[in-house]
Amino acid sequence: MAQFLKGLIVKGGREEFFNYNYFNFSGLKGQTKVSRSGLHYYSSLVTLVLSSPNEDFIDYLLEQVFKTPKIELGNLIISPEYTEKESEPELEPSNKFVCISPLVLLSPTFDDDSGKRFINPDTDEFSDLLYESTLTRMERSGWYTQEQMESFFKFQVVPDMNYVNKLKEQQKKFARIYSVYDMDVKYEVRGYTLPFTLYAAHEVQDFVFKCGLGAFTHKGFGMLDLANNSPSQRTEPYKFKREGFVPYRSRQQQSNSSESSKDESED
Questions:
Q1: Can you tell me the distance from the alpha carbon of 80 to that of 82, in angstroms, rounded to the nearest whole number?
Q2: Which of 77, 148, 150, 251 has the smallest number of CB atoms closer than 10 Å to its CB?
Q3: Number of C-alpha atoms within 13 angstroms, CB side, residue 110?
């Protein structure tokens, strides 16, 4: 998915977006089943969630998606149908988030396995690494003054350890190894999927909600949503900015057919 979206960004021809990293996206959401041959989709509709604070970029990327009537991702064949916009939620000084894509803490270098190192979520290192990567990205964006950056010192990630311990008791994993490609080089990183509470300034909460949390967010990692929240109950029709609408975060649903699927039902 990351390679496909990158291809669309380049194909559209707007050079200012070729290396733009302040966006985030989920995996394809639908009814799935894991088998020895891979992930099988059994949904007639699948959903991709896109997020960015840049309205023009979202418009641009969606335009490229809908110029592609047939999209092939491995053996999965999908066709874009429509896009909805999520109503922007009210973020508090502390918010409980869930990961709708894996959260990556470390960015490895070439020929380096450090990205696979397991870090216990219930440690200061877990929270500190997310703080450092978030503040670095916020500073590089140029959207905040020096005074604002200095005020963002309050930052703490508190994982839901009841959830983590329950998974351990059930012998299920909340941390797995994932492959990611950067400049055509394959890396392996550890991703975490767990609920947590973030204590931080409003600007920081807003940044991670729209741009993702952790490393490789522009490659589909670290996408968040509010816990106990139903996105389907807070969506509205999407219109492009040129039509007088301001899109930030959109849910894009697509028709899906897979060579490996036998049964289909509406998601």
A1: 6
A2: 150
A3: 4
Residue type, 254: Q
**Both tokens assigned to 126:** 């877990």
Confidence of residue 251 (pLDDT cuts 50, 70, 90): low
pLDDT in tens, 55-67: 999 999 999 998 9
Global pTM value: 0.85
Residue range 1-86+234-267 forms a domain whose CATH class is: alpha beta
Write down the residue that tokens 């609408």 correspond to.
245
- β 103-104/94-99 pair status: unpaired
Q: Encoding tokens for residue 99?
A: 């990961």
Average pLDDT of the segment spanning 229-249? 61
| Residues whose CB falls within 8 Å of the CB of residue 86, separated by 6 or more in sequence, listed in order | 231, 234, 235, 249, 250, 251
> How far does Cα 181 stand from its chain's mean position?
16
> Distance between CA atoms of 255 and 76, rounded to whole angstroms?
11
